[in-house]
Amino acid sequence: MQDEDLSKIKIENQQIIDNKELNIFEAIVPVAILMGMLAYNVFFIEDQEWFGTYTNQYILLIGGFVAFIGGLLNKVTPIVMAKEVWENLKSVFVPIMILFLVGALAGTWLISGVIPAMVYYGLQVLSPEIFLPASVIIAAVISIATGSSWTTSATVGIALVGIGRALEINPGMIAGAVISGAYFGDKMSPLSDTTNLAPAMSGTDLFTHIRYMTITTIPTIIITLIVFGIISATIEPTGNADISNLLASINKTFNISPWLFLVPVAVIILIFLKTKPLVALASGVILAAIFAVIFQPEVLKGISESSFSAISNSILTDTAIATDNEKLNDLFFSGGMRGMLWTIFLIICAMVFGGIMDGIGALARITKALLSVATSIFGLFASTVISCLGLNIIASDQYLAIVIPGKMFKKAFEDKGLAPENLSRTLEDSGTVTSVLIPWNTCGAYQSGVLGVGVGEYFIYAIFNWLSPFSTLLFAAFRIKIKMLKGKLA
Length: 490
What we know:
Elements: H1 5-12, H2 24-44, H3 55-73, H4 78-91, H5 93-111, H6 114-125, H7 131-146, H8 149-166, H9 171-188, H10 193-202, H11 206-234, H12 243-253, H13 262-272, H14 277-295, H15 297-303, H16 307-316, E1 319-320, H17 326-331, E2 333-334, H18 341-359, H19 362-372, H20 377-394, H21 398-415, H22 420-432, H23 442-451, H24 455-458, H25 463-477
Antiparallel strand pairs: 1-2
Helix pairs in contact: 2-3, 2-19, 3-18, 4-18, 5-14, 5-16, 6-8, 6-12, 7-8, 7-9, 7-11, 8-9, 8-23, 9-11, 10-21, 10-22, 11-22, 11-25, 13-14, 15-16, 18-23, 19-20, 19-21, 20-21, 20-22, 20-25, 21-22, 22-25
């Protein structure tokens, strides 16, 4: 979830452009070139810096340029394409502001002692043997309460990654556990915008949609917990012996107090009360700055002679808190707002590519091609799943991955006698949760930027997310709990 109602409304009402001049081959060419270049960069270029630090961004722009040329050859004017790009960019304006605030949040929560306190108390409670399944559960509870996977990662997610690193657990495993729990909660929470958007697109109501999702979602999260339980049981607790030294170093550097938890609790309460995310996160930054002055004056002096300067530095740029423990030195670092620039540039380039693809009619053409081969009930479910996955890759936005297939496949589900909740559940199982598995998707870029763990590192461990589409296909293949319209037979 992008935590932003304005984007949802704009995209929900967006017109899907259909260009009859464009054939399926021309629609796929930009995607093939994009995927080919990305694959080449990953597998054959050392350090994945073909064009320097911003390689993936440039590849997305190249893909957009290819789509632009294809549009010109098919009688699409530059004005039409530019308009769609602009609409896409407008839709991510607030998420970009959220990213900047998350960078500021990470910096102020570090210097105020909030993150060190979370690590300090977490090390005493969460042992390696239960850490991963516990992370799934904690993230799920927070996400259900707030309706936001983004807020979950920006609060408890950052802390859990820090605790896990201190315990020397693979960061990809930790991020995968956090994301699995966060997206389970996001998917099942009535406060989530995607959970409201999917039934709106399919023609069912919110709570019917949530109840029907439990059929595939509960078994999937149970399997996820079992797998993480097995993984945790096999982890060698190499960091366990050093916990006392870590606790002593944290205590020596920071003034640790349970009162520091008032800051994240306040943010979570604000989100739960449906306060705008920008307001909630900004409040978290301001509160943390105040707590830094109250609780961590020595830390602020170590950064700058002026408390105001130290706080400003933590918000805007790199901040490193030196301790007498090398593990903590790596952990207690924040890039501030500047640290989010790579992620923000990636999102902007992805929106340019997705906007041009939409403007030339390629998104509608590809979805129609999938719809045309859906001759059976299972084929219809499979085409919907593929469409959602494809749009997460091409359009780089989970909202579009819900809205476009929702609009295109709604009548086909009705014609097959399928109740609308079948479509809404499939949109969530394959559109919402897989967005975080695409590095240049807004969700993938956000989560990797906030947690400090690359998509490639956590992909295989985001078990709930990649297992969900398989679950919905499995239930469709065996006609398990496939609800039909009244008077229709399965």
